[in-house]
Amino acid sequence: MTKFVVEGLKATIEGKEILKGIDLEIKGGEIHAIMGPNGTGKSTLASALMGHPKYEVTDGSVSMNGEDVLEMSVDERARAGLFLAMQYPSEIAGVTNSDFLRSAINARREEGNEISLIKFIRQMEGKMKELEMNPEFAHRYLNEGFSGGEKKRNEILQMMMIEPKLVILDEVDSGLDIDALRIVANGVNSMRDEDRGFLIITHYQRLLNYIKPDVVHVMMQGRIVKSGGPELAERLERDGYDWVKEELGITD
Ligand code: ADP
Ligand code: MG
Ligand code: MG
């Protein structure tokens, strides 16, 4: 049973403290959403959890099924089942989408147990169809010249193919029109599983109309300042963040 625990996580970038003590516990089967104003450290949290070298973790712990995630390299984290769909996915020239996906899948498998090419292609084609992606995207260089929405769909394709245990989606809804949003949300919902946890970072409540979270957290100034159920997201959409600040006596 997947259990992902973050305790007192602090992280700095270029010497500036961005995360000021984050606590989270996500179990298999749960969807947690993090909402918060721009610049509060949501993407920093996602990157720090994945081990991006730009972010220095200065305190706290992260564990996945009791194993120390902070001790793991980026590759080891992926192998342990962590996955991040980035807010700004990078382009990789010279590597096709299909090559990238196949090596990502095989990186999580034991040597000698790699996915067969036929099976891989069949799976990829099926998932691309579900996401209503043009088949030619399999052979395009990773994210190169993809529109914002195409990049987001492609991140979801990666998630569906890699079958991670803990999925972090960073503003996967930004830049999506309503049809694309529904397709992406269906992709996520199809991956809901007893043994898979989700951390969905979003600026807007809109996505949460399609993906029902179990827990909603509000992040401000590098801390989770409030947690609740889906009704919290609805209130934030309606009233903004000021009432949370007032309630907590935060001034900025
Ligand atoms: P959010 O995702 O909530 O909008 P971010 O995590 O992207 O917030 O950013 C949090 C803070 O960290 C911001 O003040 C931002 O300017 C700063 N920050 C993020 N990345 C960098 C970076 N590469 N260099 C310097 N500051 C950064
Ligand atoms: Mg932002
Ligand atoms: Mg961000």
From TrEMBL:
It holds the Pfam family ABC_tran. Gene3D superfamilies: P-loop containing nucleotide triphosphate hydrolases. Residues 4-246 form the ABC transporter domain. SMART domains: AAA (SM00382). Keywords: ATP-binding, Nucleotide-binding. The keyword ATP-binding applies. Belongs to the ABC transporter superfamily. Ycf16 family. This is Vegetative protein 296. It comes from Paenibacillus aceti. The gene is sufC.
